[in-house]
Automatic annotation (TrEMBL):
<dbReference type="InterPro" id="IPR019076">
    <property type="entry name" value="Spore_lipoprot_YhcN/YlaJ-like"/>
</dbReference>
<dbReference type="InterPro" id="IPR014247">
    <property type="entry name" value="Spore_lipoprot_YhcN/YlaJ"/>
</dbReference>
<dbReference type="GO" id="GO:0030435">
    <property type="term" value="P:sporulation resulting in formation of a cellular spore"/>
</dbReference>
<keyword id="KW-0449">Lipoprotein</keyword>
<dbReference type="Pfam" id="PF09580">
    <property type="entry name" value="Spore_YhcN_YlaJ"/>
</dbReference>
<protein>
    <submittedName>
        <fullName>YhcN/YlaJ family sporulation lipoprotein</fullName>
    </submittedName>
</protein>
Length: 187
């Protein structure tokens, strides 16, 4: 009987201890700021050595004391690939096209000559082949013939060409891409 009471007490203590564990109060700052650009060589022993001109007040330095943590983690590098779009438009099935490249992804919006059946696998493959032939650094090509997405991509392309800062519409672009290509983000 004493053994059963002792065993019940130990099990109750173990269960209550296990259920009481939370992460409240845990210092997770290091994990929360993972996308922050960290300064390197903060304790640089040669900082005050004039031979290396590493002083930030030195007139010919290329060092910049500004830390811009915009939250984009360099994902905001977008460019319009007009030469790729021209290759896509050269296909007999395609009337117009926009191509925006981010990192190693190409997002293509196209208007087909005869868009009664939507985007066939054959035309999608031809478009992807043209993109990858024009830019071998592209790993993934995402194609859409959605008219709304085509209009949005036209606006994004014009904004980039006109020098508008990408940070101003990058979140909107990402939201649009997530809506049109949800499988890309649900891997």
């Amino acid at each position: 009987m004493k053994a059963k009471a002792l065993l019940a007490g130990i099990l109750t203590t173990a269960v209550l201890t296990g259920c009481g564990v939370t992460n409240k109060g845990v210092n997770d700052t290091a994990f929360r700021n993972r996308n922050v650009t960290e300064p390197t060589r903060v304790n640089n022993p040669i900082t005050n050595d004039n031979r290396f001109n590493t002083d930030r007040n030195f007139t010919n330095t290329d060092l910049t004391p500004v830390r811009n943590n915009t939250g984009f983690n360099n994902n905001s590098r977008m460019r319009v690939a007009d030469e790729v779009a021209d290759r896509i438009v050269a296909l007999p099935e395609v009337d117009k096209a926009n191509v925006i490249v981010t990192n190693d992804n190409a997002y293509v919006s196209a208007r087909l000559v005869n868009n009664t059946n939507g985007l066939s696998r054959d035309v999608e493959r031809k478009i992807a082949d043209q993109v990858k032939a024009a830019d071998p650094n592209i790993n993934d090509v995402y194609c859409s013939v959605n008219p709304g997405f085509y209009n949005q991509m036209t606006n994004y392309s014009n904004n980039i060409r006109n020098g508008r800062p990408v940070e101003g519409f990058y979140n909107d672009f990402t939201t649009s891409v997530r809506q049109v290509f949800p499988d890309h983000f649900n891997r």
